[in-house]
Amino acid sequence: MNARVRSEERRAEIVGAALEVIAERGYRGASLAAVAERVGLTQQGLLHHFPTKDALLVAVLQERDRWDAVPDSRWRVDLLASLVEYNAMRPAIIQTFSALLGESVTEGHPARAYFTERYARVRESMTEVLRGEYGDRLPNGLTPERTAPLLIAVMDGLQYQWLLDPESVDMPGAFRDFLRLLGERAD
């Protein structure tokens, strides 16, 4: 195995450890030393792969996006329920995403620009998904532009509730109920 492949594997291992540490402690509570210890490196060894904590955060967010990447043309409203079910099988990823999202609303947080841009892209994408499914008006009378932020808010809000009390919140079931409100058959 060549050095480049080993380096890429080590970077992936570090990103995985960073996901775990951020899920447990939040971004501000996570330290490079804790991530380095989890993968058996010194902090200096970790800095060889990621020169700053912010660089590691960006790599974590990019990795999460790669896992969830689906071409916009393949999304349909009924498939969003499958995404919610999939998310229910990966609580650590959802916890990391939620912790970073919550922290990113503070001024100067290194992930603020990432989440601001991500939400703009997701709103645009969901608007197009809704338009493709319903045209210019949903059965409830709202436009796709007005419904997209609500759809995203329900998905993300359910994740927070589910993380706090997974025994009481049926995230996939509640999302299917929301789809019924849109006028979609969710069975």
Automatic annotation (TrEMBL):
InterPro entries the UniProt entry points to: BetI_C, Homeodomain-like_sf, HTH-type_TetR-like_transc_reg, HTH_TetR, Tet_transcr_reg_TetR-rel_C_sf
DNA-binding region boundaries: 31-50
Keywords: DNA-binding, Repressor, Transcription, Transcription regulation
Pfam families xrefs: TetR_C_6, TetR_N
Keyword Transcription: yes
Domain called HTH tetR-type: residue spans: 8-68
Domain of life: Bacteria
Matches recorded under PANTHER family: HTH-TYPE TRANSCRIPTIONAL REGULATOR PKSA, HTH-TYPE TRANSCRIPTIONAL REGULATOR RUTR
Protein name: AcrR family transcriptional regulator
Organism: Streptomyces echinatus
